[in-house]
Write a structure and sequence with these properties.
Number of helices: 22
Strand order of the largest sheet: 1-2
Number of domains: 2
Radius of gyration: 22 Å
Distance between the termini: 31 Å
Number of strands: 2
CATH topology of the largest domain: Growth Hormone, Chain: A
Shape: globular
CATH superfamily of the largest domain: MFS general substrate transporter like domains
């Protein structure tokens, strides 16, 4: 068999070529969403700061986003059943991505960003409906390959991030970001129209449309109260809730204030923010391919504890990175150490820690949820997680105004708290078989 034949018979390539229906359209159009997202996302907080938003206001914008995500999570299942997967995805893709992109492109002050964050928070609805559209009519045997292809597209898209660095370096942050948001609006909107025009309602969606015909949203959501009680009556689901909430807050704080810290305190040129995701993506992909399979026999607890230790160490390294270059002497040699070098070490360590922790966290929380009511429980758990995360956006902003290192001190406190939770749940976590493959 020739190399070209081997390539075309690779399971992922075979799936990419032969898949049909909604999964085909979703996969083929995904680059229209993920590439522009990777172009603008590294610069969002710096863009807000350039338009004179204070750190507290940036944190408040993050809280507004989490608030509307929480409300959307509560309504997402009912809306998806009432309107259908296809129509819900189109309406709320447009509302949560196309509309805020236009607002961001012309933003002038805090209120523009707050309104955009409210619209963007509606993405929790389309997150549910799009996932249903993607998998409900697909063959079960192809689901792993479908999600692997989506993940690979996400990683490959990071390659394009340096293009935004060139634009920012040439034009400065504000005009470059306005251009990027217009490009993103056009690209994402094209994707949404293609998926709506050529996609179809799933069989499950058709059944739910018939079942919910004439019912109000509140009638569809009946029974949520008993689900909430079941969540808080289960030690396993409380454990899952704590893990989800911890990483939700850590992701929000880091995403909101990392760019401000490295450009404002470490004095790294702004356009470098586009190169860091590329380095991180290379490390994560390499780790997942080479090392992840070898770690499966260790289960959940030990890899997660090791990952949390690495997370804590690299976050402390970020906090104590000096803002100016300095000399060190090693073996009678004098080396000039730049803050950028230490930042690269941080990115590599953070990527390794991510690879240890996040895939297992995602898998573990799915295992801990009761299988019979996984869909509704997962949705309501996200309401709780996002609701608990809301105050931390403003808190992190207030801390950042005091000292831009303090949000990362908060992250260390959260990491240590998660470490303690996992450490003291030894019996339960050691009893769980790793039957969901990480990554």
């Amino acid at each position: 068999m020739s190399q070209s034949e081997k390539f075309t018979k690779h399971p992922l390539i075979d799936t990419l070529v032969n898949i049909r229906g909604n999964p085909r359209i979703a996969i083929y159009t995904e680059p229209l969403w993920i590439i522009p997202f990777n172009l603008y996302s590294p610069f969002v907080s710096v863009y807000m700061a350039a338009l004179l938003l204070t750190d507290s206001q940036i944190g408040l914008v993050a809280s507004v986003f989490m608030l509307f995500r929480a409300v959307s999570a509560f309504l997402s299942g009912a809306i998806t059943d009432k309107l259908g997967r296809k129509l819900t995805t189109f309406i709320f893709d447009m509302a949560s991505w196309s509309v805020p992109c236009l607002i961001w492109a012309f933003s002038q002050n805090f209120w523009w960003f707050a309104i955009a964050a409210a619209f963007n928070g509606l993405m929790q609805i389309t997150d549910v409906s799009w996932s249903c559209l993607l998998i409900e009519d697909a063959e079960k045997s192809s689901l792993v390959r479908i999600f692997t292809l989506i993940h690979m597209i996400s990683q490959i898209a990071v390659i394009f991030a340096p293009l935004s660095a060139l634009l920012v370096n040439r034009l400065s942050v504000v005009p470059a970001m306005r251009i990027l948001f217009i490009i993103t609006f056009i690209s994402m909107t094209i994707k949404f129209f293609i998926l709506y025009k050529y996609g179809g309602e799933t069989e499950v969606g058709k059944n739910r449309l018939n079942e919910t015909k004439g019912m109000s949203l509140w009638q569809i959501m009946s029974g949520y109260g008993s689900i909430f009680k079941r969540i808080f009556a289960s030690h396993d689901m409380i454990l899952a809730l704590v893990i989800l909430t911890g990483f939700s807050i850590i992701g929000m704080v880091s995403g909101s204030f990392y760019g401000l810290y490295v450009t404002g305190i470490l004095m790294v040129p702004t356009h470098f923010l586009a190169y860091f995701p590329l380095l991180r993506s290379v490390v994560v992909t390499t780790f997942l391919i080479i090392f992840q399979p070898k770690l499966e026999r260790f289960g959940f607890r030990y890899p997660m504890l090791i990952g949390l230790i690495i997370f804590t160490i690299c976050t402390a390294l970020l906090i104590f990175t000096p803002s100016q270059s300095f000399n060190i002497s090693i073996f009678n040699m004098t080396l000039l150490i730049e803050p950028l070098y230490i930042l690269c070490i941080y990115i590599i360590l953070e990527a390794v820690a991510f690879s240890f922790v996040i895939p297992r966290s995602d898998s573990l929380t799915q295992i801990l949820i009761e299988p019979a009511e996984r869909a509704r429980i997962r949705g309501l758990m996200m309401v709780v997680v996002l609701g608990l995360s809301i105050p931390f956006g403003y808190l992190a902003g207030w801390l950042s105004e005091t000292d831009r290192r303090y949000p990362f001190v908060l992250i260390i406190i959260l990491l240590i708290s998660l470490f303690i939770v996992i450490l003291f749940n030894k019996k339960r976590l050691d009893s769980i078989k790793q039957n969901v493959v990480p990554g």
